[in-house]
Amino acid sequence: MSKHDQREQTHNTVKRKEMSRRQFLSYTLGGATAFMAGGAVLPMIRFAVDPILTKKSEGTYVKVVEESKITTEPQEFKFQIHQVDGWYESDPQLSAWISKDESGEIFALSPVCKHLGCTISWNTQNNNQYFCPCHEARYTKDGKNLAVAPNPLDEYEVDVKDGFVYLGPVKGNTRVE
Ligand code: FES
Fold it and tell me: Which residues cross the membrane (predicted)?
């Protein structure tokens, strides 16, 4: 090999080494940048879609009162539920009027008046009816609307287990037509 050829070969080798160093640097920098960008962006995407991925706790029942305390006379019981609405979590207090019917079945009515949403009470006028003080709507013990309100009171889903009454979601009244 002539001296000229040797110089040429050496030059080519050096040239190839410089190219691969440049490539190595650009791959390394590119990789590091992509890694850092991914680390910053992925949590944001996760945060944005989290409420969509989270299962809603719909349909869960809450322990409200001992079964032995329920009589044929409606009584008001208060209880707390845990609500998750997107990113907002809350523990509102609800109430229900719970009683037994003639066959001993336990049922629970929502206290929300079906006229304009005021709160009803049992027997405030000594007539064995639910009464709403806002516009004087009246309902039977089963929640049937007698005056002013256009619909019967809503019911809670009820489950009786191990001596306790559990209440679930509110549903339309199934006791009256
Ligand atoms: S809101 Fe109950 S009667 Fe009007």
Answer: 24-45
* pLDDT at res. 49: 59
Which of 118, 124, 131, when mutated, tests ligand 1's pocket best, judged by the most ligand atoms within 8 Å of its CB? 118
Q: How many distinct structural domains can be found in the chain?
A: 2
Distance from Cα 34 to the centre of ligand 1, integer Å: 61
Q: Specify whether 10 is located in the same domain as 71.
A: no
Domain shared by 69 and 152, yes or no: yes
* Residue nearest ligand 1's atom 1 by CA: 116
Give phi and psi for 31, each to the nearest 5: -65, -45
92-135 pLDDT tens trace: 999 999 999 999 999 999 999 999 999 999 998 889 999 999 99
Q: How many CA atoms lie within 13 A of 85 on its CB side?
A: 6
| Domain containing residue 81 | 62-171
